[in-house]
Amino acid sequence: MRSSTPPPWRLTGDGDGRWPVLVTSPHSGRHYPAAFLAASRLSLAELRRAEDALVDALLDGIAGVPVLAATHARSWLDLNRAADELDPGLFDGPLPLPVTPGPRVAAGLGVIPRLAAMGQEIYARRLDPAEAQRRLDGHHRPWHALIAAQLAAARAAHGAALLLDVHSMPQPQGPRPPQIVLGDCHGLAAHPAIMAAIEDHFRRAGWRVARNHPYAGGYTTHHHGRPAAGIHAVQIEICRSLYLDPHRLILTGGAVRVRASLTALVQQLVASWPQLSGQPGWATAAE
After folding, report:
1. Which of 237, 232, 273 is nearest to 258 (CA)?
2. Which of 88, 183, 255, 263 has the most CB atoms less than 10 A away?
3. Using CA atoms, how far apart are residues 205 and 63, in angstroms rounded to an integer?
4. Cβ of 278: how many Cβ atoms within 10 Å?
5. What angle do CA 14, 15, 19 make, to 5 degrees?
6. What distance in Å separates the CA atoms of residue 180 and residue 192, rounded to the nearest whole number?
7. pTM here?
8. Per residue in 53-81, pLDDT tens?
9. Are residues 229 and 199 in contact, defined by beta-carbon separation less than 8 angstroms?
10. φ and ψ of 102, to 5 deg
11. Architecture of the domain whose range is 9-86+137-284
């Protein structure tokens, strides 16, 4: 946590459309506003359990290609939710905003979450309805507008663009659980050739890979992935045991391998983009 307020995100690389790929990390932010901490019943250590901890550090090796990382904590505002996934019960008055209740809101995991890790209630008191407007206008809407603008510039330069939305996950259940889960909203958000290339890359690296289960992609993948319009989106979930000490929230020695693999993946996708974008049915995959 920093004493001063950082900007909503950190953008590195060349954001002028010269690359066909944009990489994002919406859940690795580590800034917890003082007013949020004062309103929470949880300690900072408990709140931090909700982070996709240090995923942004895994992306540090990617040079040139734009990498967009959120700075503010996921438990304060979840950028991988729709702006209308709001829980009216969190607020002490009516919301001056559209509200669309759904299963994620009911589970306490809306755009302004009610629950942190392990199902813990975040807030000790209800929030001012104006707070929802401030968080959405200050962070959520500009974040997704920037993603859309970056992808539009890349598509204009290359004919098509790809968003890689990178997350981390607790180890899934089962005797041989996947270590990497790729989500394309069950084929709606990206051309099959892209998914095949990404899956092949991680399998050759020696990891167990699954598609769309247990994570098929969140709001970011669903909202920005429009293959028929030349914009593709894939969510990448990385098992935290590959790179993170979950108790101290520090990188382990495995982070070197994960970082190298992510860097190599982006380099491979950029190099093969002319061939990938020449695949049959590229422009109509989701129609």
Report:
1. 237
2. 183
3. 21
4. 10
5. 70
6. 17
7. 0.95
8. 999 999 999 999 999 999 999 999 999 99
9. no
10. -155, -175
11. 3-Layer(aba) Sandwich (3.40)
Cα–Cα distance between 106 and 174 in angstroms, integer? Answer: 27
Question: What span, in angstroms and rounded, lies between the C-alpha atoms of 226 and 283?
Answer: 9
* Residue type (1 letter), 23: V
CA distances from 228 to 84, 149, 182 (A): 25, 17, 20
Mean pLDDT of the chain: 94
pLDDT score, position 286: 37
Cis preceding-peptide flag for 96 (omega within 30 of 0) = no
| Residue 89, both tokens | 């019960």
In sequence order, the 6+-apart residues with CB closer than 8 A to the CB of 226 are 189, 286
The per-residue pLDDT for range 191-234, each reduced to its tens digit, is: 999 999 999 999 999 999 999 999 999 999 999 999 999 999 99
**How many C-beta atoms lie closer than 10 Å to residue 86's C-beta?**
23
Q: What's the one-letter identity of residue 236?
A: I
11 and 62 in contact (C-beta within 8 Å)?
A: no
